[in-house]
Design goal:
169 residues; mainly beta; 5-stranded antiparallel beta sheet; 4-stranded antiparallel beta sheet; 2 helices; 9 strands; elongated; binds zinc ion
Length: 169
């Protein structure tokens, strides 16, 4: 006899509505009841400082959670910046301060994300910190739904929505 899960626990798909504000109270991000964030609890799919606080919450429960940088996106690392020549961008590339770039790291072969933090005359300063690094995060969350993750979802490590699933993993 299937038992409906009553509270957030590992291996459950959590549908979470939330509002994220910074220290000044400005809204950084949000998701409503009709378009919640969905993730499998217990796998670090969301920042640890928030995930840890969700355990035991029932459907409909609301909570305010303050997450310090070390439990969020880490402290800001001033060394995680680099200066690149503007020559590396195509002449018609519309480079703007604050934009997110996906860069191909030739050494590791991986794609890394960087923010354009400053554009100078012939060079650009790239910032590899997460944009929320160093920030204390203020969440107001509400558990919209809970259900057990399927074996396939646990195997893939992500939530399968209502839409047809055709990813290769
Ligand atoms: Zn999948």
């Amino acid at each position: 006899m299937a038992q409906h899960p009553m509270a957030v626990d590992d291996d459950l798909v959590v549908s979470l509505a939330y509002t994220l504000r910074d220290d000044e109270g400005a809204v950084i991000d949000s998701a409503g009841d009709n378009d919640p964030l969905e993730f499998i609890q217990g796998y670090g799919h969301i920042i640890s400082g928030l995930e840890d606080e969700l355990y035991g919450m029932e459907v409909g429960a609301e909570k305010s959670v303050v997450v310090a940088p070390e439990d969020g996106y880490g402290p800001y690392d001033p060394a995680a910046t680099d200066v690149a020549s503007l020559d590396m961008f195509p002449p018609d590339f519309d480079l703007e301060e604050g934009m997110l770039l996906e860069l191909h790291d030739e050494e590791s072969g991986e794609v890394v994300e960087a923010y354009v933090s400053e554009i100078r005359e012939d060079e650009v300063v790239l910032d590899f910190n997460h944009p929320l690094a160093g920030q204390t995060l203020h969440f107001d969350v509400k558990v919209v739904n809970l259900r057990p993750a399927t074996d396939e979802e646990l195997d893939h490590g992500h939530v399968h929505g209502a839409h047809a699933h055709d990813d290769a993993d």
